[in-house]
C-alpha cells in the first residue's frame, strides 16, 4: 500500500511560537542517530551544556536541556523546588504566570499571588509588600517575557529584594532566551528555564534549564523526594554529570538541533543578537504606529521578540489571521485569556527578526486591514 504524501508547506511563523527553525538546525536534526551513551553523543551533550552556559550567561554547572517543551521546564522548576505546604510567591502578569500558580499548587505549594493587569509588568512595590507580609515564603516565581501580553519584566529591583529576603528567584525565560539578555548570573536567578521553539529557532522538544549552586544544594538535600520521577533533577544531574548515570534516553536528534542553534548564536554573539532584536522591533513598532495600530504595552516595558497591538474596532481579528495565512502563508497569533479576540501577537524571533520578513508581514497586514 502506498499512502499519499504528507502535505506540509513552508509558512512564515511570525506568531508567539513556534518560530521558523533555522535551515542549519533542520539539517543537523537529520544527521545519523547514534546511541545516547556513545562517546560522540556525550561530547555533543557536553558542548551543548557549555553553549547553554554562554547563552544563559552563567557558570552554573547545573545547566542542561530537559526533555520536553517549555512547560516541562516550568514543571521541572516547580517540582524540584516545592515541598508540600511550602509557601511561595508567584507574580502573575499574564497567562504564563497564571500557569505557574497551577503547576506549583499541584505539587502542594501554598501560593501567594502578586498580580498586575494584563499588559503591565509587576510593580516591585507590590512584590515588596508580599515579601514583607509573607517572610516565611521560600521562592518567588516570575515570567521574564510574558508571551500572552508582550511585556518584558524588569528584574533588577525584584532580584535584589528577593535575595535580601533570603528567598529563591525562579524565572521563566521561554520567550526571552536567545532574543533578549537573560542575565542569570548577574541578577542571581536561582532556577531558570526556557524552550527551544522561540528565539532559539529550533523545533519544540527541549527545555534548557540552569540552576544556581545555592538552589542545587537545596534540591540535593531535600528530605522529601521530588514528586515527579521524570523531571527529578537529582537524577538528571547525574545523567548530565560525570558518572552518566542512566535516567532516560536523551532526545538525540533534538539535541543535535539545539546544539546547532546554540552554535549559530555563538557565531553571531549574544550582544549583537540582542541588539538586532531591539533595533528590528523598534522599526516594527514605528510602522505599526504609522498604521494607526494601538500597542498593548507601554514602550519602556515592550518585549522585542513579541509585539502586541489592539486590532481596530469592528475588525474580526481571527478573520485577519486567516487571511494572512490563506493569501500570504504567514502565521501570527491572537490574544489569550482576557485579551482573546482583542489583540494580535507578532513574534520577531531569531531568524524572523529580519527587516525583509517584517516588510512582507507589513504589506500583508495593510492588505488584510483594508
Ligand atoms: N512560558 C512561556 C512564557 C511561554 O510563552 C510558553 C509557551 O508559549 C510556555 C511557558 C510553555 O511552553 P511550551 O508551549 O513549549 O510548553
UniProtKB/TrEMBL annotation:
Domain Aminotransferase class V as annotated: residue spans: 16-335
Binding site for substrate: 345
GO molecular function: alanine-glyoxylate transaminase activity; L-serine-pyruvate transaminase activity
InterPro entries the record matches: Aminotrans_V_dom, PyrdxlP-dep_Trfase, PyrdxlP-dep_Trfase_major, PyrdxlP-dep_Trfase_small, SP_NH2Trfase/AEP_transaminase
Gene3D superfamilies: Aspartate Aminotransferase, domain 1, Type I PLP-dependent aspartate aminotransferase-like (Major domain)
Region (Disordered): 1-20
Reported cofactor(s): pyridoxal 5'-phosphate
PANTHER family associated with the record: ALANINE--GLYOXYLATE AMINOTRANSFERASE, AMINOTRANSFERASE CLASS V
Family: Belongs to the class-V pyridoxal-phosphate-dependent aminotransferase family.
Name under which the protein is recorded: Alanine--glyoxylate aminotransferase
